[in-house]
Amino acid sequence: MISKESIIASLNNVGPNTLYELSKRLILLIPASFDYVAPRTLDEGVKFLEKQGDDAKVLAGGHSLIPLLRFRLASPKYLVDINRIVGLEYIRESDGYLHIGSLTRYADVEASQLIQSKYQVLSDAAGHIADPLVRNMGTVGGNICHSDPANDLPATMLALGASMVALGSSGERVIPAEQFFVDTFQTALKLTELLKEIRVPVPSAHTGSAYMKLERRVGDFPIVGVAAQVKLNAQGICENVGLGLTAAGPKALKPKGAEASLRGKKPGEKEIREAANLAAQDAQPVSDLRGPAEYKREMIRVLTVRALQRALERARGGT
Amino acid sequence: MAVEAPVIHEMGHAIKRKEDPRFIQGHGNYVDDIKLPGMLHLDFVRSTYAHAKITRINAEKALAHPGVLAVVTGKDLEAAGLAWMPTLMNDKQMVLPTDTVVYQGQEVAGVVAEDRYAAADGVALVEVEYESLPVVVDPRKALEPGAPVVRPDKNTNAVFHWEAGDKQAVDKTFKEADVVVKQDLYYPRIHVSYMETIGCVAQFDSIAGKLTMWMTTQAPHAVRTVASLVTHIPENKIRIVSPDIGGGFGGKVYVYPGYVVAAVASIKTGRPVKYINDRSEDHQSTAFGRDWYMTAELAAKRDGRILGLRINTTSDHGAFFGDANPSKFPAGLFSICTGSYDMKAAYAEVNGAHTNKPPGGITYRCSFRVTEAAYAIERIVDILAHKLNMDPAELRKKNFVPADKFPYKSALGWSYDSGNYQAAMDKALKKIGYAELRKEQEEKRKRGELMGIGISSFTEIVGAGPANTFDILGLKMFDSCEIRIHPTGTAIARFGTKSQGQGHETTYAQIISEELGLPVDAITVEEGDTDTAPYGLGTYASRSTPTAGAAAAMASRKIQAKAKKIAAYLLEAREEDLVWERGKFFVKGSPDKAKTIQDIAFAAYTNHPPDLEAGLEAVHYYNPPNMTFPFGTYVCVVDIDRGTGEVKVRRFLAVDDCGNIINPLIVEGQIHGALAMGFGTAFMEEIKYDSDGNQLGGNFMDYLIPTAVETPRWETDKTVTPSPHHPFGAKGVGESATVGSPAAYVNAVVDALSHLGVTHVDMPLHPWRVWQILKDKGVAL
Description:
The complex is a heterodimer of chains A (319) and B (781).
Chain A: H1 4-9, H2 18-23, E1 35-37, H3 42-52, E2 56-59, H4 65-70, E3 78-81, E4 91-94, E5 97-101, H5 106-111, H6 113-118, H7 120-126, H8 132-137, H9 140-145, H10 152-160, E6 163-168, E7 171-176, H11 177-180, E8 181-183, E9 186-187, E10 194-201, E11 207-215, E12 222-232, E13 238-246, H12 256-262, H13 269-282, H14 293-315
Parallel strand pairs in A: 1-3, 2-3
Antiparallel strand pairs in A: 4-5, 5-10, 6-7, 6-10, 8-9, 11-12, 12-13
Helix pairs in contact in A: 7-10, 12-13, 13-14
Chain B: H1 20-24, E1 40-46, E2 52-58, H2 60-64, E3 68-73, H3 74-79, E4 84-86, E5 92-94, E6 100-101, E7 107-113, H4 116-125, E8 127-132, H5 139-142, E9 158-165, H6 167-176, E10 179-190, E11 199-205, E12 210-215, H7 220-231, E13 238-241, H8 257-269, E14 273-276, H9 279-285, E15 289-300, E16 306-316, E17 345-353, H10 370-387, H11 392-399, E18 408-409, E19 415-416, H12 421-432, H13 434-446, E20 450-459, E21 471-472, E22 475-476, E23 479-485, E24 491-495, H14 504-516, E25 523-527, H15 545-571, E26 578-581, E27 584-587, E28 590-596, H16 597-606, E29 617-622, E30 631-640, E31 647-657, H17 664-683, E32 688-689, E33 695-696, E34 714-718, H18 736-753, H19 767-776
Parallel strand pairs in B: 1-14, 12-13, 16-17, 24-25, 31-34
Antiparallel strand pairs in B: 1-7, 2-6, 2-8, 3-7, 4-5, 9-17, 10-15, 11-12, 11-14, 15-16, 18-19, 20-30, 21-22, 23-24, 23-29, 26-27, 27-28, 30-31, 32-33
Helix pairs in contact in B: 10-18, 14-15, 15-16, 17-18
């Protein structure tokens, strides 16, 4: 017997593509009733969450939340639409960081010359989320705050070593990506906080990055995805590596063993294969309609090779 | 009253579709666009179990919810004698269950409310208690002794046993054979995924005692007759209207429980009631396609000459046998499975089974099971070619029914009207550059790259059908056209068919234009309203052009015959001295002495011969003398990623022959659409169930249909072999590519792997399925 309650109860104990595994057993496509709030300023938004955060859901692009509402997996009392808050959509470099406002749309990330030239993994990932209609609406902040392991940006942020800036009534706090993603649909963000921006360290010279995604069909959630960023020194020795795995476990994963294996080495075919094997070992995929676990693990390996190769080409000046 | 220099746009012109301006500007009128004053909304509580006893339904909370007016259960319908309804295949089907549910997603109770949201809230508040029963989801297991019995009213899961051909003669060919190949082939369960889901608006007028149903149906007249027979509402008091339909593909021939509950709810409340399936409801409860387990065997001589074919099939029909087949054909037209090949003997057998899954089977542009038949023969022929180490194109050519053997009597009894298979094959191979591709493949193999070329040379059978064999519940499968020419030379034509996107408003007008010389724009085509359209059996199985299209030509010819009498009167000439040139009659030898069809139309109402009735109208009910047999050769070229198992379709060429073409643009559009659907079937679509009967993938997040990104740039071409028995030599075409293409995709992938000893891969060709083979064969990267 499948009840809504049993499904929600099982939410904490499932692998990637969770919503989609569960939703196929549900056929309600009309949301329950809710109240709608549309703050005009960050301050107004935070004040409302301070009071009603437990009963509220924040609506940004809506491409994860609306399906949850339609399947009645989420039935919040309040929907807090932050789309009218001015000044949360920006992409700029300052103080050694790339700052991305949490309401920035995927399409703007995809089109940004700055991101295309220095943060290729981000433009690769943003450019392959769903389809153009979704990319015009979906937001970077929403993608991250949903903490769906099948979303592309959590792994990307892990590879980039990004941090999230949360805003609550007592002010801002900065949360590193590694600590931000707690579990499936769970982040370190409190119910009373809003995500304000994402900060990515500006890469030094000889840095390249790439995102590789395997999907059943364009617009589908990935079978798996791999994000990679590689920093070389002038001699071509690998100084730093960031990796992130999509749809490879209950949350986006950072395969640290694979990252460490490349540091201090000149990355050739053998080293890349070794790192990819380690990344595949770290993956915790589950079998579902997007393929058996064994296949997904192997694809983490294959895509890690391809992502690292691409990132290295870019670090060496290729595109 | 002549129109100046009319642009006729008769047959053969690739004119843009007349219906498209309203569709592309958002002015289509679909069932969900219909809003009536006081209209209520119906939504369904659906079974979470695949098989269970209902121990209790508690609607109290739902009824207490604001806006909820009623909760309808099977017990309520039972009191009205409507808990069950007949199916098209002489079975019966639950409208709502009285005590047992037989598949997940089955309607359990209907909630009627003032608005759509209140109806959904009500559904969430109805409490249903179940006691689970053993489940069977695999039709092969369902037929084993001791399997759980699906139906509470039956003691077996066996639905039917059907066979065709001479079993002993086939056995003899297998004894004579030098080589025999045998392959299990599963054709997965799929859903057509039309853009518009199933729905209706029911409006009962209690003063007139008349029930009007706006309904997503491909066969409005048959629905009206059956509804009248079941409910005893006089047939003149039932009006079925099919407004614009967003795709049907066979899934909208079925009569769904929701239609009946909506009608009952409207009769009970006296208010109009709307019922529209959500996408998930639609995927989980409405008619599926295929789900056939076939074992195909082919007997041949060493030189590749095919002697005999044997196919054993177990078919899944879900909990109710409701296939939208002609009634005498429980296995559809599967006996077309000898395809394009001349062979001595063939035998085919199908055993149908009930399972705890939704009913269906005949949908998804299948031409009544021709998809399964074409897939089986085109796969097994390829397997034979690889076994004999022969080029699959050569093997096919060696066995084609020769062009001079038509009309050809097939081993399973069909009389093929016309064909030239070799010509289509030659054209396809030349155009794709087959020899060069084979060379490229050889070079790539040396480098370890995987590339494959797949061929499918299918034969279709469409246009049901001749009245002596084809009927649905006794209603003969003719179709009809009624034409009225107005005094000022324009016309309205009505048909018994119903377009769901096929472009009838354009093609039918072109047929009449061809026959009468009226401009296409002067002809309005109407379908789908049973109060106005002549009786017909509807649109499915590529039958509209072969039947109603023929009726349009025949009705036009009746009008032309009357027009000739009027012209003779006007020209003061004898009928036999008149010559018809498209759009006018003139006196033989005096082309100036002419009367246009427009002149004649005006005269028909103002100055007709005294001994002739006024008016210029005709109706024709066309009974086709035979089926039509379209065919073609498809060639698919694929590359396989050895790292991921992904298959990239690099090229796909379709050479089709559907006889004379009415509108090349529409035919090409039909082929493009069906190629994409075939692609979906081959690579991504499948409705799976776990052993508890839970449907996996009942929405568009999990059930994928292809996009323009995955599909290649389609290449198309044609040969033209007219049907000898059709009034203007046309054949149906709507399903050719869903019938013909899946085997081409699979053959290409198997061809890419054949040097590794691979003989078959079941659809869908998921990347992990291909990767597993690469891994097993030691070639995965």
